[in-house]
Amino acid sequence: MKDDVPKIRLRGLSKAFGEKRVLDGVDLDIRAGHGMVILGGSGSGKSVTIKCVLGLIAPDAGTIEIDGRDVLAMNRREREELNDRIGMLFQNGALFDSLPVWENVCFKLLAQKRITRRAARDKAAEVLAQVGLAASVGDLSPAELSGGMQKRVGLARAIAAQPDIIFFDEPTTGLDPIMGAVIDGLIVDVVKRLGATAVSITHDMASARRIGDDAAMLHKGRIVWTGAAAALGNTGNALVDQFARGEREGPIQMELRR
Ligand SMILES: Nc1ncnc2c1ncn2[C@@H]1O[C@H](COP(=O)(O)OP(=O)(O)OP(=O)(O)O)[C@@H](O)[C@H]1O
What we know:
InterPro entries: AAA+_ATPase, ABC_transporter-like_ATP-bd, ABC_transporter-like_CS, P-loop_NTPase. Residues 8-245 form the ABC transporter domain. This is ATP-binding cassette domain-containing protein. GO terms for molecular function: ATP binding; ATP hydrolysis activity. It comes from Neoroseomonas eburnea. By secondary structure, the protein is of the alpha/beta class. It has 2 domains: 1-85 and 165-250, Rossmann fold, CATH 3.40.50; 92-162. It is built from 9 helices and 10 strands. It has a 6-stranded mixed beta sheet with strand order 6-7-8-3-9-10. A 4-stranded antiparallel beta sheet has the order 2-1-4-5, covered by helices on one side. Strand 4 (61-66) and strand 5 form a beta hairpin. Helix 6 runs parallel beside helix 7. The relative contact order is 0.17. Adenosine-5'-triphosphate binds next to helix 1. Residues 17, 22, 40, 42-48 line the site of adenosine-5'-triphosphate.
């Protein structure tokens, strides 16, 4: 794959729900092997954007390319093969309480019969070690774990099938600042080890700077800025800097929401 082909390329991505236009021509390039953080106010369409890329929501218009391939034109089997290469860490972990941790970690591999149950136990232990958890955690129920441990297990599940794209939805939400930094460190480590492309949504600017190489700001249905995540708060773009610093005064007029 040539370096100048982005891992993910969005062009003119649009989506409305009824009268409400959420995405209004999103253009975004996400570099292979880099971390992209998507910023934007509540309800600005960050999750809808990611769901379009995952194939969970069909956009009304626009194109989505992954490795230069038009994903909206893929048949079901091609789409499934693509999804096998994508991992996802959900905001609340989204672990199944009815299954022990090891089955959660290897859920996808087991569901697709890509691994035996015996091999899955060993695989889970190996992946749990990568996120700093002992093999014995594999036998616990998710309900027995702290929030930080649940995030680690969610991260282990996201990487178990060795994806080359991983989405992180609010990875530090609900964690104390130190545990948030620990999880971010793990994310950076595992993404680097896999050589994966990481796409994250976060409202936590410290986290954005840690896990992002690049950042993009979604506002009024479009990407209004892209740049280095390290510069967040000092980008020179009044809109982005207001958002990153959490200032009430600035170009972003916050609507009061019910
Ligand atoms: N399936 C759906 N049907 C109708 N409206 C939807 C649907 N999914 C999302 N929306 C609307 O689209 C808008 C954008 O939602 P989205 O979840 O992408 O926001 P977000 O930027 O991720 O916000 P947050 O930071 O609060 O999670 C919201 O107004 C939401 O109500």
